[in-house]
# Entry
Amino acid sequence: MNAFDSLIQPGAEPSGNGLLGLSQRLPPSNVEAEQALLGALLANNKAYERVSEFLAAEHFADPIHGRIFHAVQRRIEAGQLADVVTLRAEFEHSGLLDEVGGPAYLTQLLTAMVGIINAGEYGRVIYDCHLRRQLVDLGEVVVNRAFGAEPELDGKAQLEAAEQALFDLATDGTTEGGMVTFEKALAEAVNLAERAFSTPGGVSGLSTGLRDVDSKLGGLHPSDLLILAGRPAMGKTALAVKIGFGAAQAVIREARDKDPNAVVRGGVAIFSLEMSADQLATRILSEQSRVSGDRIRRGDIAQRDFDKFVEVSRELSSIPLFIDDTPAITISALRTRCRRLMRTKGLSLIIVDYLQLMRPAAGTRPENRVQEISQITQGLKAIAKELSVPVIALSQLSRQVESREDKRPQLADLRESGSIEQDADVVMFVYRDEYYLAQKMPKELNFDNNEKYTEALDKWQKDMEQAHNKAELIVSKQRHGPTGTIRLFFEGEFTRFGDLDQTHDQDNYE
# Structure
């Protein structure tokens, strides 16, 4: 006999709806608490301040009580008096007086009042009963789905839908949070300033491993959603991996500076929806060992290069990077895995490559693609705030970039740009002029004479030399700081980004 069977007492029969005994049970409610709260509100409208943040009319089990509370709420928030006399007149005018029990019941509620000092407690009891009724309803939905009520959802999708519903129930209308004293907010601001002052380069957040990016952004800050966008072949994934790798190294450095023997907590989670985990690992190995990833895949490397490749892989094995290559992952599944990682290993940064390949929560059906992307970006921002870690989401750009003479991206180029731009704290674009210049190589057939062709070719070669191994990171939006362009070094053979120093050999920079 398993644990489920043990729930059935000898001789008892499961109820017809599949939930043991629920058909014989009444939904959780506390009518006395509802009456006592309404009585307190009618006796003294100031009691409303104790429940206004979290209680709504739909939280009442008795619909009559919910209707009375709604009337009280509407009058108080309009600056009007809400008592037995005014509510009686209002319900009489609307023809609903009999539906709420008549004037006798309104008067009876006053006798149920114990005292306004307890109004907050009554409100919390009512809200708790509401939550438990929602859990009962959710349980019935889960059971019905499991029995095949929605055949389009397989078992895995049902798990994700149930988890999303539980998360929404836990966060919607929550009474946590609220006002923070200015003194506390000031203390947090001073702590951030102190961290920036004591850190080389003035970085208060998590380091990206790129000097000029840290200087512009101040590092990666908890609860921020950063969008990294670009056209194909610009190097979005390579830059995101570089930042993730740099952040993981920064986590190790910070932990070891405090205690050389410390167990590092706070890894970097990379959700790679486009590339497999081994492809992403090959990119990192190629960058760090400076052995071409293409040659590695083709086996076109010398023994010396292979030995170096293996040596670097051993050195990198302790880096706290975690890769999830689940295709088309849902926002609820991503949240679950990040929570689990936070609990078991710690979490400092989340990278999603890329958000247009994600799916909204299972069980939701957005009307159009813009709504779908909006749900995803809002979900990512919620995860950043819930776990207090920065989230970097890569994004594709629309093809309208290619139709312009200057192909540097703009905010309007973001696919489904409204929701992405609105939810993001930082929007950055990767741009490499060298990629577009290479496509504009002059062809002799297009010129009338050899002299014009030679002149055009010389100019093209000079432009290519200036753009060679250079990239731009265009910060078009930053809630907490300046916008502008950061010039970076890019080595295509190793898909490697680095700091750009105009006066030193690039080989000296990691």
User: Anything to note?
Assistant: The two ends are 61 Å apart (CA to CA). The CA atoms of residues 194 and 204 lie 8 Å apart.
